[in-house]
Design goal:
Oligomer: homodimer
Organism (chains A, B): Paenibacillus nasutitermitis
CATH topology of the largest domain in chain A: Aldehyde Dehydrogenase, Chain A, domain 1
Structural class of chain A: alpha/beta
Number of helices of chain A: 15
CATH superfamily of the largest domain in chain A: Aldehyde Dehydrogenase, Chain A, domain 1
Keywords (chains A, B): Amino-acid biosynthesis, Cytoplasm, NADP, Oxidoreductase, Proline biosynthesis
Protein name (chains A, B): Gamma-glutamyl phosphate reductase
Largest interface: A-B, 70 and 70 residues
Strand content of chain A: 15-25%
Strand order of the largest sheet of chain A: 10-9-11-8-7-12-13
Largest sheet of chain A: 7 strands, parallel
Shape of chain A: globular
Radius of gyration of chain A: 24 Å
Function (chains A, B): Catalyzes the NADPH-dependent reduction of L-glutamate 5-phosphate into L-glutamate 5-semialdehyde and phosphate. The product spontaneously undergoes cyclization to form 1-pyrroline-5-carboxylate.
InterPro entries (chains A, B): Ald_DH/histidinol_DH, Ald_DH_C, Ald_DH_N, Aldehyde_DH_dom, G-glutamylP_reductase_CS, Glu-5-SA_DH, GPR_dom
């Protein structure tokens, strides 16, 4: 039996135990996991150093190596994350609906764990701990498949977490790490219907596309974000500049940052130059439509391929539009249904934008950078769903649950 | 452009209009559709007669032809179904959550239409109307791909429905029928990411398997039901007999009927013979485990393949088990997470069964035949989900909605 199938089967067995763990049992385990990470910080950092060294030999950039890096302080922060998850309310076992039918049947709808969650992600080893913590809190087992660049770190971290679980009521097998670095192990996970209940990809566009295109297991698609800010004719110039600058520059590498700025022509005439100056001063490369290039000679020409690209970088498309309709059409064509914003003082235009834009999060007069489980007050985030089924937008703990109907009778049969 | 892509694109355009239709506008349209079906009953019956004639020439069984048949009375009943959907509450536009963050951002979570729903189903033309009604009520467009055996009926019905819509505020293009009878048109639908937001298959196991295995569009899996009834040692003999008989015989062709009866050995010794007699008298073929065959000589030997088959017919597997654990293990191995039942007077055993069985609907002392949107009080049913994401069990109107976050600020940026 392959590593993937064997570990998924162990996770499924453990899920039947996880399913009946109480909130206290789960929280105790999360705290034990946090303590173990802190206690073992030195051995984790040593394993991480192997990944760093190999990465440096392979020519990995220093910025990526920094994201991969684990030290005592970072391990402490990751452990604190587990402690915070322990303090969140348990979404499992809630009565969501309850009633008696005329025939006397009592029907109760309760929240239950999903079962076994497959996580497929890239480098950062903190995701290993975060995902394990969120899945266990919600009574699930998890099969982790991280990127090979962090394999030594992930192996050590999972060993520490499983050892910690062995001292608790939770089954250690509820956390599984796939160590096979080949892409075939991902492909196998994607077809494990009957063992995995859902697969959640976290990573770049190509990782997510591979999962969506090849999975037969249900998927929660996350993350791809081609986000727009549209500045309406009546947008407040200072607010518009602040929001556009924040959405692009505050953290360009994340999915809720802005990739394209759409500007009403009447606003652009008076104010686009100063917004562009501020962006250029922050080393943002501007790619513009013809009208933008006429106003901003520093801009390169933007192509449809540019509008369809999630840069995650200091690059911004700017397109001047005739009106809200043209902005809506652009977003409909190039948006990924993640986060979209209108800056306007006109309530009617704002209402129309909020209604018409089909995205997980639609903003009026605020930066798209707020699309985040913590910013939304969930206390945790397993990812940001860009699909419409099951969960949409930032996913907190309830996104890791399903439901079940319990029906009690006294011999009812159907006539 | 292919028929599928062209019609899906029209449906997507129409979805942007559907999305802003009010409850009154949608209900008026449903009533207009109902009236049109009644007014056009003769032309619909004439088109249906072409399907019936062709089916009879092709050797279709009379029972299948009966399911295909449309006459004035049946068309009237289908129209009444639309009128009932019009009376149901509109699940779209509900405020699901709302609050203000410390930074002053107002975040509101509302229910919205899914967008464009692809329905892939088999023969019965009533599904064409039911699905169109449910999708339109929830503000969606629908792309219908029915079985070729009902193509003349479906074509006429959709023509009538679209003509009716043309007299209302709703866009006629919100209802699309794929007429291409080739399997390739189904396969094309399954890959239409960006145009279809979800695909819902309704039909036999092979249709559903094809959809699950080949779709890149998100799927709501429905219908496959290998349902069990477990009679515990302490089960009331008369109640157990009634529930088992009802679950198997009342309507064997549907997904919530029983395929395997599990019986505690202590119960079997005293009561299985009389239950078997009742089933045999109703012309149920029994396939049993070794112990069952010893008690019921009329039984054939049951194989694992039998336990894994959804008969939808007058055939029943019976297996005698040592205890609840063995029953749970059997259900875990062969169940399809649809509907499972325990018959027992022991509250502890019942509680354990309800907790441990991982299925959409778990029953204590009632027939599995109740798993149904109408029986659950939803007033409608788009199908019974056997997956854990998005919706599980009978799906009413809310299963055809998604959510969206609306965020209003006054210039908030992220620090």
């Amino acid at each position: 039996m392959s590593e993937v199938r064997e570990k998924a089967a162990l996770a499924k067995k453990a899920a039947a135990i996880m399913n009946r763990m109480t909130t206290d049992q789960k929280n105790s385990a999360l705290l034990a996991m946090a303590d173990a990470l802190v206690n073992e910080h030195a051995s984790i950092a040593a394993a991480n150093e192997l990944d760093i060294t190999r990465g440096r030999e392979n020519g990995t950039s220093e910025s990526l190596l920094d994201r991969l890096k684990l030290n005592e302080q970072r391990i402490g922060a990751i452990a604190d994350g587990l402690r915070q998850v322990a303090e969140l309310p348990d979404p499992v076992g809630q009565v969501l609906d309850s009633g008696e039918r005329l025939n006397g049947l009592h029907i109760t709808k309760i929240s239950v764990p999903l079962g076994v969650i497959g996580m497929i992600y890239e480098a950062r080893p903190n995701v290993t701990v975060d995902a394990a913590g969120l899945c266990l809190k919600t009574g699930n087992s998890v099969v982790l498949r991280g990127g090979s660049a962090a394999i030594e770190s992930n192996r050590k971290v999972v060993e520490v977490l499983r050892s910690a679980l062995a001292q608790t009521d939770l089954p250690a097998d509820a956390i599984q790490l796939i160590e096979d670095p080949n892409r075939s192990s991902v492909d196998e996970m994607l077809k494990l219907n009957g063992l995995l209940d859902v697969v959640i990809p976290r990573g770049g566009a190509s990782l997510i596309r591979n999962v969506v295109e090849n999975a037969t297991v249900p998927v929660i698609e996350t993350g791809a974000g081609i986000c727009h800010t549209y500045i309406d004719q009546s947008g407040d110039p200072e607010m518009a500049s602040d929001i556009a600058f924040n959405a692009k520059v505050q953290r360009p590498s994340v999915c809720n940052s802005m990739e394209t700025l759409l500007v009403h022509e009447a606003f652009a005439a008076g104010h686009l130059r100063s917004i562009a100056d501020r962006l250029l001063a922050a080393h943002v490369e501007i790619r513009g439509c013809q009208r933008t290039c006429a106003l901003i000679p520093e801009a390169k020409n933007a192509t449809d391929a540019d509008y369809a690209t999630e840069y995650n970088d200091y690059i911004l498309n700017i397109r001047i539009v005739d009106d809200l309709n043209e902005a809506l059409a652009h977003i409909g064509q190039f948006g990924t249904m993640h986060s979209e914003c209108i800056v306007t003082e006109n309530a009617g235009q704002a209402a129309r934008f909020l209604q018409a834009v089909d995205a997980a999060a639609v903003y009026h007069n605020a930066s798209t950078r707020f699309t985040d489980g913590f910013e939304f007050g969930y206390g945790a985030e397993i990812g940001i769903s860009t699909q419409k089924l099951h969960a949409r937008g930032p996913m907190g703990l309830p996104a890791l649950t399903s439901t079940k109907f319990l029906i009690s009778g006294n011999g009812q049969i159907r006539g």
